Amino acid sequence: MTAKAAALLAGLGLVLGGCAQLPGYERTEPPIAAGWPASAAVETGAELRIPADWRAAYPDARLQALIEAALQHNRDLRLATARIEEARAQLGLARADLRPGVDATASALTQRADGDVSRRFQAGVQMPAYELDFWGRVQSRDEAALMRYLASEEAARAVRLTLIADVAEAYLLQLELTQRLRLTQATLASRAETREIVARRRDVGLAGDLDVLQADGLLALGRAELAALQRQLAAADNALTLLVGSVPDSLPPGRGLEAQDLVAELAPGLPAEVLLRRPDVLAAEARLKAANADIGAARAAFFPTITLTAALGLASRGLTDLFDAAGGTWLFQPVLRWPLFDAGRTQAGVDLAQARRLAAVAEYERTIQQAFREVADGLAARRNLAEQLAAQQAQARVQGERLRLAEARYRAGLTSFLDVLDAQRDLYTAEQAVVQTRRAWLANTVRLYKALGGGMVESPHVGG
Q: Does pTM top 0.85 for this prediction?
């Protein structure tokens, strides 16, 4: 009888095994254009060439040391890593339901009835209620847990890429402010020297009080700008320290802003080729697959469940002879449960899973569109910032020559001191703009490199 029942259940499993409720998954067409915008200035059919190793993109030894420290100590990255461990544990729990468990059991029963006392002792092994997964409910839960685990891995990779880019940008800002601070200090020294020259010329009747007042005003303005830059540099230092987590006591010497040779060549390839390899996009797709699997688990709740309970052991009236002359005991108990009425709870569970899948689709598509915009903006700004930097460098050279001529004409008495002051201000502004634009160009390169998915080892889940 028992053998026939087991054979019947096995046959039923083979017949119904193909009735799993897990919906099929097909990657939807990315909701983006087939090519980059014309403003991106990318050649049609360009091959994907993006350095996978961030060290190749950031050759500055000091910056590399800071990034290494950040990867070890940053709290956001530690949190993302903890999320991976949490998702791995959830996956282990889900997969445990796919296999039956076995428990060792021992029990003692003492009972009195009508003055008689009876005792019974048992020991053995037991298989708790194990669900035969005819409809794929357990399999769907396992698939959902696996996808959430993969999503947590990709999310951690996205945090890692973002952290590397943030450290690089913070380092570039620190270099910019340091260079602007030195430029301001040198300009202040030059203005103080000019003020002394004007004062001596006034003493011999070659300049007036107005010239001295104008020189004093320009000197005070420079001191205010110096204080503002010192405040900004302190904030930039604090921001970099927060990102790194623990700045090493000794760092190798770094390069100046002009010597930062970041990502010599970037060829983005086609949008889908680039964006579908980004970890944030892969994480969103994994969450979509998890939501898809949740629908299968919710649908399976409409169908009957069959659970098996089995036990095998020994029984005796006395504890001392339990393992000597005890009789053998066994139990095999299949249970069929078919839901008939639950006030719409099961259907609501399916509706909830489907709504969450729609939200996951929207999140996936939004992530791809945001990634497309990041790359397109970076490609467009890359060319424009390079042209802007070249123009501002030319302007700085012109302003430097203008100041030289204005000072010569003032010493010869051919022009007023106001022309010298105007030339000094314009040169200072032009030099500051060159430094700011150079940093903006480098920072855009960092953001573009990150947007293209550079700086990571190829994900094993790409195209999955």
A: no
Residue 308 near residue 333 (C-beta atoms within 8 A): yes
Per-residue pLDDT tens over the stretch 227-237: 999 999 999 99
Residue type, 226: L
Residues with Cβ within 8 Å of 370's Cβ and at least 6 positions away in sequence, in order, are: none
Maximum mean pLDDT: which of 2-11, 176-185, 194-203: 176-185
| Cα 422 to Cα 287: distance, rounded to the nearest angstrom | 60
Task: Report yes or no: 419 and 395 within 8 Å, Cβ to Cβ.
Answer: no
- Across 305-316, b (16+ Cβ under 10 Å) vs e yields bbebebbebbbb
2-98+133-304+364-451, CATH topology level: Outer membrane efflux proteins (OEP) (1.20.1600)
415: CB partners within 8 A, 6+ apart: 406, 409
DSSP designation for 304: -
Residue 452's closest CA among 364, 382, 365?
382
Q: Domain residue spans in the chain?
A: 2-98+133-304+364-451
